[in-house]
Fold this sequence. Notes:
The complex is a heterodimer of chains A (444) and B (292).
Chain A: H1 2-21, E1 23-29, E2 33-41, E3 62-71, E4 75-76, E5 79-80, H2 83-101, E6 107-112, E7 118-127, H3 135-143, E8 154-166, E9 169-172, E10 182-193, H4 194-206, E11 210-216, H5 217-225, H6 228-233, E12 235-240, E13 245-251, E14 254-261, H7 265-276, H8 280-290, H9 297-301, E15 303-305, H10 313-316, E16 319-321, H11 322-347, E17 356-360, H12 369-377, E18 381-383, H13 402-412, H14 433-443
Parallel strand pairs in A: 1-6, 6-11, 12-17, 17-18
Antiparallel strand pairs in A: 1-2, 2-3, 4-5, 7-10, 8-9, 8-10, 12-13, 13-14, 15-16
Chain B: H1 17-26, H2 29-52, H3 55-73, E1 79-80, E2 82-86, H4 90-99, E3 106-107, H5 113-121, E4 126-134, E5 138-145, E6 148-154, E7 157-162, E8 167-171, E9 182-184, H6 192-201, E10 209-215, E11 219-224, E12 229-231, H7 237-251, E13 258-262, E14 270-273, H8 275-291
Parallel strand pairs in B: 2-5, 6-9, 9-10, 12-13
Antiparallel strand pairs in B: 1-3, 4-5, 6-7, 7-8, 10-11, 11-12, 13-14
Amino acid sequence: MIELYESQRAMRNMRRAAMQRGVVAVLDVGTSKIACLVLRFDGSDRLRETEGVGALAGQAGFRVIGAATTRSRGVRYGEITTMAETERAIRTALQAAQKMANIRVDHVIACFSGAEPRSYGLAGQVELEASTVSEQDISRVLSSCDVPDFGEGREVLHAQPVNFALDHRSGLNDPRGQLGQDLAVDMHMLTVDGAAVQNLAHCVKRCDLELAGLASSAYVSGISSLVEDEQELGAACIDMGGGSAGVSIFMKKHMIYADTVRIGGEHVTGDISMGLQVPHATAERIKTFYGGVVATGMDDREMIEIGGETGDWEHDRRTVSRAELIGIMRPRVEEILEEVRARLDAAGFQHLQSQQIVLTGGGSQIPGLDGLATRILGQQVRLGRPLRVHGLPQAATGAGFASAVGMCLFAANPQDEWWDFEIPVDRYPARSLKRAVKWFKDNW
Amino acid sequence: MQQVKRLEPKADPAPSRWSYRYQRLMLTPLFRKLLRVGVPFCLAFGLGTAYFSDPERQEAIALAVADIREQIETRPEFMVNLLAVEGASGTVEEDIREIFPHDLPASSFDIDLDAVRVSITGLPAVANASVRVRQGGVLVAQVEERQPVAIWRSRDGLGVVDVEGVVIGDIAQRADRADLPVIAGTGASEAVPEALEILKAAAPLRSRLRGLVRMGERRWDVVLDRDQRILLPETDPVRALERVIVLAEVQDMLERDVAAVDMRLASRPTIRMNENAVSEWWRVTNMTVGAE
């Protein structure tokens, strides 16, 4: 896995360089929109690595100075399908954000929702060399994890040590310096389709930018939408996006599971478009203005002008009752939620103590969704909006920007990943200076 | 269901690659600074250099500058038409006019007042001078002349000296400045103030005083008529002279046939008599002794 270390380490170094320059852009490549925020980091002292989330929920020390959103093109199910189109859309968003920030951005941290993420739980155990746990021991225990065969053409997006156990004491966050004999680690690894990552990297590169980090959008919307208690006690975050719904389960402030349901708001729009025989744009407008999932008697009487520009007078003057619209939307939303339920069940969410579920993302703004979700997902469902971060425009505070805001927090306070730890000495290439130093240390 | 209205294809909102790159370049802080400061500077510098590199133009500009300068300098406000000398006697004023280096009228920019002042001060009869341009184009030289206090008789002749011992001028004979006392001897001019003190003290002897002689560049002799001399000591000569004057008044000492009164040793004033007086004195003494 050395080559994975290399690329992820390179990205991490680039992120560090960007933080030093003080400006970094975060890019949320979604199916329906592409959001770009430009962050300025002021004062690196406040960005020191702290346990858990730092002061002000980890949002101190940076400020959003540019924000732009554009309609996404060439993206389906959270994956790039038409590179040139997506590249243009990214360019549009970035240019607008740069213009607002009035500064050039060279480093970008991107997230995407698709590419079939798969979660793996990894476990490793080693015997300590000395009586106390050293950095090298942690590296060794991480590399001792038996990596499952996740298939050809897939890449590791996240690999986070979730839990350390020393002898019989579990739940350690940082075992360094502790006395013990056997060190065990539980790790959560998320793999995605490699081609999707390559496509995104290529698009970003075509925009003259350096990719300084990659994240799964399910993960970052969890960071921004779950409050600290939920992250600590355990909760699931469902990011209902345009092309896919991301599911992430958090526990003890670590993500322990992530998955994606490949149905989203675009499918709802498509249903309306087909059901009402209207163009996609009109369907989208009707959905956002009049959409809902719970019909009442009032909705039978509320007639919606469909409108249109076809030139056929009769066709353009049709009306439809809101109940009918709800009748079109509801089965699809139910399907999404049931699919999410299935993923949660597969992950064993019902065994968690806390059954909190947070709905976020643009799709969570459908009126009445919380009632529907309660019936499908369980009693503890709430609608989540992302945290407020400094300088975020009012237009970008909605649920649809959960992953963009989460990216900000991710950029400011990244979680330790596998590649942030030292490479174990025996994995070093030969003739390494460090190895020689280690040999000297051991022998004298 | 065909659409009757032709839908205008919406313009692509995405910037082209080049416009995107251009915008990014324009947002680069260093580049913007360069553009805002560097380019105007280089442009102005280049244009200026190109313009001024032509020697003909340089000459024309230098000429124009000189012309304007000339015009300003020769304005009547800046012209000096008259040299006024204040506080100088006739001969000194003539001398000053003679050595004044400029032809009037001249521009006040051309006249170096300091140099004029130095040259005026360089005249022996001038102790101090200040030169300034007064309103109305008058150059005023305020001169402080040296005051003659004594006549210095030296090998070269008679000279008038001031209190500092500077020779102001020559005179042909003593009678030309009968009001001034005479001093003589090597180094006399260096001790004029002391001589003046002594002369002041010697006022009772004024009618008989011929002058002062500096002896050995350290002390004074008062020379009276009938070749009488009063030898004054190096230190405190005035007091010694006063003692002599008192003696002279009380005992008519100087009326007698005395060649010199030697006051060089204060504790032992000595009188040198003339030869006649000595022999006469011996004669009288012998007579007295013989009579006894």
